[in-house]
Specification:
Blueprint: H1 4-14, E1 22-23, H2 24-31, H3 37-47, E2 58-59, H4 73-82, H5 95-98
Parallel strand pairs: 1-2
The protein binds a DNA duplex (13 and 13 nucleotides) through helix 2, helix 3 and strand 2.
Length: about 100
DNA sequence: CAACTGACGATAG
DNA sequence: CCTATCGCCAGTT
């Protein structure tokens, strides 16, 4: 079942520092598969509530939340704002300020 | 083993 | 900005 990839992804997500966000591509890349961004999303669905994953810190490459406005979008946005992550008027996150510099750790 | 599924990404128009 | 398409990969059925 849990191939090392999935485990690594969960591990990485847990390491995202408060006040920072990461993209699916980033996580997938860091986990060893630059093209497995979909699995990252899938894993979030699979175990965001089971493990204590800060799923709200994971966004898409556009700097936006992928969830529909009636399916968690507002909740995720609220959680991020509580951590000090603000959105611009296009509802996008400013990568220069909030993107997790994953290779610095 | 085959088909299907995704909270994606990049590209093309 | 938008939609349409294809690629990619792990996990399910």
């Amino acid at each position: 079942m849990t191939s090392s990839f999935s485990k690594r992804v969960k591990d990485i997500i847990k390491k995202i520092p408060t006040g920072k966000v990461a993209t699916y591509g980033q996580i997938a890349t860091y986990a060893g598969n630059p093209r497995a961004s979909r699995q990252v999303a899938w894993i979030l669905h699979s175990s965001s509530g089971k493990d204590n994953l800060p799923w709200h810190r994971v966004i898409n490459s556009k700097g936006r939340i992928s969830l529909p406005h009636n399916g968690g979008y507002e909740m995720q946005k609220g959680l991020l704002e509580e951590e000090g992550i603000l959105f611009d008027k296009n509802d996008r996150i400013n990568f220069d300020r909030y993107l997790w510099q994953i290779f610095e750790e």
